[in-house]
Specification:
Blueprint lengths: L2 E5 L2 E4 L4 E8 L8 E6 L6 E6 L6 E2 L8 E6 L5 E7 L8 E7 L16 E2 L3 E6 L1
Parallel strand pairs: 2-11
Antiparallel strand pairs: 1-3, 3-8, 4-5, 4-9, 5-6, 7-8, 9-10, 9-11
């Protein structure tokens, strides 16, 4: 059974930090690229970060570049994906989703349709 379970969300003041985690199991996710997306009410999912299967390549939109860092731990049967979020802003408030692709690298990392596997999402709220 495929499971992607996010944790680490919550409420933080502007300028603060949070670290999101995602535990992925049920597939050989160590062979797959993975990413983070976020969504606010009334809007579609927004690409936040992506990482290739071995962690060698990472991708970010300008809105989070320099503030967010994606990483992964493939060492165990359950793959752990992380998103370190620093210098948080109120506009970072959203539900954050962990997602996994079915390829190791290549393609369009920022397109949600490239990711067949998704977590249930976790709320991050940044107060001003």
């Amino acid at each position: 059974q495929v499971q992607l379970v996010e944790s680490g969300g919550g409420l933080v003041q502007a300028g603060g930090s949070l670290r999101l985690s995602c535990a992925a199991s049920g597939r050989t996710f160590s062979n797959y690229a993975m990413g983070w997306f976020r969504q606010t009410p009334g809007k579609g999912r927004e690409f936040v970060a992506a990482i290739s299967w071995n962690g060698a390549n990472t991708y970010y939109p300008d809105s989070v570049k320099g503030r967010f860092t994606i990483s992964r731990d493939n060492a165990k049967n359950t793959v752990f994906l992380y998103l370190q979020m620093n210098s948080l802003k109120p506009e970072d408030t959203a539900v954050y989703y962990c997602a996994a692709r079915s390829v190791a690298y290549g393609g369009n990392y920022s397109h949600e349709k490239e990711y067949p596997y998704w977590g249930q999402g976790i709320q991050v709220t940044v107060s001003s």
